[in-house]
Amino acid sequence: MSTVTSTESKDLAPVSTETLTALLVAKERPPRPSSLSTSLTFGWRAMLKIKHVPEQLFDVTAFPIMNLLMFTYLFGGALAGSPDDYIQFVLPGILVMSVVMITMYTGVSVNIDIEKGVFDRFRSLPIWRPSAMVGYLLGDALRYTIASVVMLAMGLLLGYRADGGFVGVVAGIALLLVFSFAFSWIWTMFGLMLRTEKSVMSVSMMVIFPLTFLSNVFVDPRTMPGWLQAFVNNSPVTHLASAVRGLMAGDWPADEIAWTLGWSGLFVVVFGPVTMRLYNRK
Amino acid sequence: MSTHSSGPAIETVGLVKTFGETRAVDGVDLTVPAGTVYGVLGPNGAGKTTTVKMLATLLRPDGGEARVFGHDVVHEADEVRGRVSLTGQYASVDEDLTGTENLILLARLLGHRKPTARTRAAQLLEAFGLTEAAGKQVKHYSGGMRRRIDIAASILNTPDLLFLDEPTTGLDPRSRNQVWDIVRAVVAQGTTVLLTTQYLDEADQLASRIAVIDRGRVIAEGTKGELKASVGAGSVHLRLRDADRRPEAERLLRELLVAEVQPEPDPVALTARLSAATSDSAAEQAARALGELTRAGITVDNFSLGQPSLDEVFMALTGREAGPATGRDAGTDTDTDAKDEVAA
Predict the structure, then answer these.
(1) CA gap A106, B63 in Å, rounded
(2) Above 60 in pLDDT, residue A90?
(3) Do B288 and B163 share a structural domain?
(4) A102: Cβ–Cβ under 8 A, 6 or more apart, which residues?
(5) Name one GO molecular function term (chain A) (predicted).
(6) Is the pTM of this model over 0.90?
(7) Residues B122, B159 within the same domain
(8) Residues A120, B92: C-beta atoms closer than 8 Å
(9) What angle do CA B285, B288, B292 make, to 5 degrees?
């Protein structure tokens, strides 16, 4: 791999102090960028990282396909008579579950990234403080979109038909992205709070598994014991899954959409400031 | 910078930062005049980086006050951030991105429009001799290249104050000299530089004023000349032919030079620290000492006259070696000694 070995300084072109001096003389400063602009710039950074390490898209392509195939054929016969019937019910749910599960990688990447020196530089810039975190989530939104498109394509191949048509499907995915963006502030918090990526991963698992499985993604909650129904019916993932399922089926379930947006708002309001507090202290 | 000539670039009073039980910074008072290179010298763990992080608004002080161009680092953090740039001990750019991408990213964050950001990035890469490596991910850069891209990232907007936190740690002598050239070019344009280093020769080369920090405290502060004068005018190193005559030579030198004379581990070697109190120059004092030894019949095999090095300054101030600072590579500490070897 001689192409990537670092070149030693003897091969380096010399520093041109004249050019440098000319550059330094220009002392004009551009006006302070807006918070939207800096957030988008950090989002661009996340895209560049995907460009340089495309392998990281594995979890938004292979993992959702695996989920979809596994659960459709594992439970389909038992729960709905046949996989073909089950997929009509389960696809929006698995879409929700997979994307919400993928959000947890945000915490891990924040945790790894924040230890690098570049964060000291970001934090010493005169910019809107949360933009680095918002940038992550914007980059992640792209990943979630990829995951959603992959799963829908796979679902169509397996026989899923969305009665809501293109508009319903796009609206469902948009709602899912909004929720994921808001929900991810939990992960940025853990990513900054916990010391190692391993601990971030294990805490995330502890949160994500009960939250996604204890919902109406796979089965109708009416088959569950009363105490579990109480939890499941009030879980944000249940509201989200119902809303997405409704939108894709062509209904516009206003109450479920409202619940989902309400939960999203709550996540941002609670975990956003905690994340920023941790970020400023890091 | 003309706009700031009225006050110092940095002013701290009783700055304190504790981590648990450790007082990493324990009451630091600094006044850094604008437009100069100010050296903060100290061994590993002395509190240099912690001090810089507080001044760059990355850490909140636990006590005391710090102002950068008159702005409080806690309450007016944004004003401070708008004027300073930070270059860490580590290459603080994104390793996964290319050189160009890093510079464009930071230029955009500083508010430059896309075309300007691109131009500025290309110009800086060219000035730093990195055009060829511009499209490579920074993780494939050599140590010297990383330091360059890091400094380039710090001067995308010419800062009023640049923090250079151990900018040459781990670099080979050639790359180190190139970094020094860059620093000199930056200062020549009016930027104030706060340089932290554990290398005495580096502070000697670049800084006009130096604060020596040890265990979170400033133990000495002044111009290079003042610091050196505080430990004497220099020292004479002698090697005698006959180890038996050393005690006699030691006594003679002590009487004659009114100097502190130390026997070295080598049984024939002696070091006399010359006094700065007399009007005689170090060379005159040394010549007199040589004559006296010859008259007493003590043969001197080898003789050298050394300027006091900052190593000696550190030794004189703390009574111990400058810790890990001298461990970089054997020989650098004597480079600045400017010894005139004379065979006797």
Answers:
(1) 35
(2) yes
(3) no
(4) A59, A60, A63, A64, A143, A144, A147
(5) ABC-type transporter activity
(6) no
(7) yes
(8) yes
(9) 140
Would you say how long chain A is, in residues?
A: 282
pLDDT digits (tens, 9 = 90+) for A96-133: 999 999 998 888 888 888 888 788 889 889 999 899 99
Residues of B in contact with A8 (CB under 8 A): 142, 144, 172
**Complex confidence, ipTM:** 0.85
Q: Rounded CA gap, A22 and B107, in Å?
A: 18
Residue B23 has pLDDT above 50, yes or no: yes
Closest Cα partner for A134 from A255, A38, A64, A203?
A: A38
How confident is the model over A164-171, as a mean pLDDT? 93
Task: Write the secondary structure of B259-300 as one string of H (helix), E (strand) and C (coil).
Answer: CEEEECCCCCEEEEEECCCCCCCHHHHHHHHHHHHHHCCCCE
The residue segments making up the domain with residue B108 are: 2-228
Of B133, B161, B159, which is closest to residue B147 (Cα–Cα)? B133
For residue B310, name the pLDDT band (cuts at 50, 70, 90).
low
Residue B329: per-residue pLDDT: 36
Lowest mean pLDDT, pick from A5-14, B128-137, B213-222: A5-14
Q: C-alpha A210: how far from its chain's center?
A: 18
Distance CA B29, CA B6 (A): 19
A251-276: pLDDT as tens digits: 889 999 999 999 999 999 999 999 99
State the CATH number of the domain containing residue B197. Answer: 3.40.50.300
- Any CB–CB contact under 8 A between B76 and chain A? no
For residues B221 and B304, membership in a common domain is answered with: no
- Which of B208, B228, B248 delimits the end of a domain? B228
Q: Do B153 and B263 belong to one domain?
A: no
Decide if B129 and A6 are in contact by the 8 Å CB cutoff.
no
Whether residue B192 contacts residue B116, with contact meaning beta carbons closer than 8 Å, is answered with no
Tell me how far the alpha carbon of residue B162 is from its chain's centroid: 14
Chain A residues with beta carbon closer than 8 angstroms to that of B93 = 117-118, 121
Whether B315 has its CB under 8 Å from any CB of chain A: the answer is: no
Q: Which residues of A touch B78 (CB under 8 A)?
A: 126
Are B200 and B242 found together in one domain? no
- Between CA A78 and CA B299 the distance in angstroms is 104
Q: To which H or E segment does residue B26 belong?
A: strand B22-32
Residue B90 scores a pLDDT above 70: no
Average pLDDT of the residues in B119-143:
92
> Is a pLDDT exceeding 90 seen at residue B328?
no
Q: What is the CATH number of the domain that holds B290?
A: 3.30.70
Number of domains in chain B: 2
Q: Do B268 and B176 share a domain, yes or no?
A: no
Task: Kindly state the DSSP code that residue B159 receives in the 8-state scheme.
Answer: -
Q: Are residues B72 and B105 in the same domain?
A: yes
| Number of residues that make up chain B | 344
Q: Does one domain contain both B26 and B8?
A: yes
CB contact (8 A) between residue B127 and residue A16: yes
Q: What is the pLDDT of residues B229-273, one digit of tens each?
A: 766 667 788 888 888 888 888 888 888 776 678 788 888 888 887
Final residue of a domain: which of B195, B228, B261?
B228
